[in-house]
Automatic annotation (TrEMBL):
Protein's name in the database: Beta-ketoacyl-[acyl-carrier-protein] synthase family protein
EC identifiers of the protein: 2.3.1.-
Coiled-coil region: none
Pfam families: ketoacyl-synt, Ketoacyl-synt_C
Superkingdom assignment: Bacteria
Amino acid sequence: MTAACRRPDVVVTGIGLVTPAGIGRERTWERVCSGRPTAMDDPELEGLPAGFSCRVPAFDPAVLVPGVQHWRIDRCTLLALAAAREAVGDAGLTPETWDGDRVAVVMGSAAGGVATLADQQDRLRERGPGLVSPLALPMFLPNMAAGHIAVDLRARGPNLHTGTACASGATAIGIAVDLLRSGACDIVLAGGADAMVTRLCSAAFARMGALSRRSEEPAAASRPFDADRDGFVLAEGAGVLVLERAPDAAARRVRRYATLAGHGASADAHHQTAPHPKGVGAELALRRALSDADASPVEVDHVNAHGTSTQLNDRVEGAVIERFLTGRPSVTSTKGVTGHTMGAAGAIEAALTALTVFHATTPPTANLQHPLDDAELDLVSGTARTGKVSLAVSDSFGFGGQNAVLAFRPV
C-alpha cells in the first residue's frame, strides 16, 4: 500500500499506563528509563515454583477509578479503565466534548478476567452452584474491558476485543489504525490489559518451563537477551493509546507523541507455543509493518523487542533483527523492568516506543550482563541512551504463532 493510499497519517495523542513500573505514564517512563527491575517475592504465589512476580504497585481502584462499582469488575478491566482515563485526559479529550458515535475502543487481552474465573470455579466446587456469582461471566469475559471503557467514556463507535495471546495489545493498535484510515471513526482508544498473576497461571507457566526459577534473587530474574536467562517473570498491567488522524490532531493543537506509521501481522503456522526456529513469521510481520510505513529495513534505528527472557524467544528474535534490520538498530526489552504483562505487553511497549521517539531517549534492558553471543545486536544496557530515533519498531509475539509489529516515526 502506498503512502498516498493510506494518508492521512495516524498519530498518538494520548498515553495511559498502569504497570509494575508505576501507576501513570510519567512514573512508568521514569522507572523504565532507570532500568530498575520491579520483580519481587509475591505472598500470593508462595509455595509455587516461581513465588515472585511483577505487580502494579499500590493499585487502589477507589482512588484510581472512582465512580464505578469495583466489586462488580475484574482487576484486568479495572487496570484497563485506569489506563484509558489517563490516556483520554492526556489527549485533552473528554466524553462531554467529543462525538461519542465517532469514538471506537479496541482492547486486547490474553485471558480477560481469569482471576474471577478461578475464584468462581473454587466456589462452585467448594460451596455449590447456588453461590456462584451472577456476575461471574460479565466479570470474566475477555471483551469486557472494551465494553466497560465504552460505558465509562460514552464511546459508541466500533467496540472490539483482540485475543492474540501476548501480541493482543499490539494487534488491537493495528486494528485501530485501520479503523481510522477507513473513516469508520475519528478517535480510537486502543491497547491491552491483563491480570494473570494468579496461582493457576503461575503454576501452568512453570509447568511449561516458561518462568524464571531465580527465586533467590527475583529482581535479577527477568534478563532479556542475557546468556543466563532462564524464563520470564509473570506480570500484570494495562496500556492505552489515543489515536487520531494527523489533521484532526493538528486542528486541536494537541501534543502528538509520534506517528504510527505502519503495522504488520502474521502467523508462524509452526507450533502452538514455540516460535518458528528461523523466525519466519516474525520477519514477515516486520516486512509488512515496514511496507505499510513505506520504509526499508535499513531505516529502522530502534527496536523495542518482545524480549521475554526465555531461551527460544530471545535467540530467534535476535537472529531476525540481525538478519533483516540491516542498519544495526539499537535494541531494548523493557520486560527487564516490567516483567511480562502478557496481553498488555504489546500496548505498554507500543506506548514506551512512542515515548522513546518523543523524548529521543532509549531505555536500557535491565539485568543485561552477559549479552547473547549468537547475535550481533546493539543492545542498550546499563543506562538510557539519548539520541534521535527516526524509525522505531515494537515487536510482539504470542502463543499460537501470533506476530504483530508496529512502526513509529517522529511527528
